[in-house]
Amino acid sequence: MSDGAHTERQLEVLRAFFRRERKRPASYTEVCEDVGFALRALERHVRILEKRGLIERAPRKHRSVRVTRAGIAALESASA
């Protein structure tokens, strides 16, 4: 996946964070409920998305995941 392509599951996680970000930043538990993942699986996807620059998060801070401009662009191109 190093070619910049994103899996449907990665985009699903990104969408969940983006949708919830409008009200307030999401907790991992809320996103797990939205996408039907176990916590460990979500953590793995979050690390991948962060490494790709699609999200940012503050270490050791709750509800700190923020979708970046690159993440929004990825969502827009996926829906086009």
Structure description:
With 80 residues, the chain is mostly helical. The protein has four helices and two strands, in the order αααββα. It has one domain (8-79): Winged helix-like DNA-binding domain superfamily/Winged helix DNA-binding domain (Arc Repressor Mutant, subunit A, Orthogonal Bundle). The chain has helices at residues 8-21, 28-35, 39-51, 69-79, and strands spanning 55-56, 66-67. The protein has a two-stranded antiparallel ribbon with strand order 1-2. Helix 1 (8-21) crosses helix 3 and helix 1 packs across helix 4. The two termini are 20 Å apart. The mean pLDDT is 90.
Low-confidence segments, given as residue ranges, are none
Arrangement of strands in the largest sheet: 1-2
CATH class: Mainly Alpha
How would you sum up the global shape? globular
Helix content: 55-70%
Domain unit count: 1
Structural class: mainly alpha
Please count the beta strands (DSSP E, at least 2 residues each): 2
Average pLDDT figure: 90
**Largest β sheet strand count, sense and barrel closure:** 2 strands, antiparallel
Task: Give a nutshell description of this structure.
The chain is mostly helical and 80 residues long. The chain contains four helices and two strands.
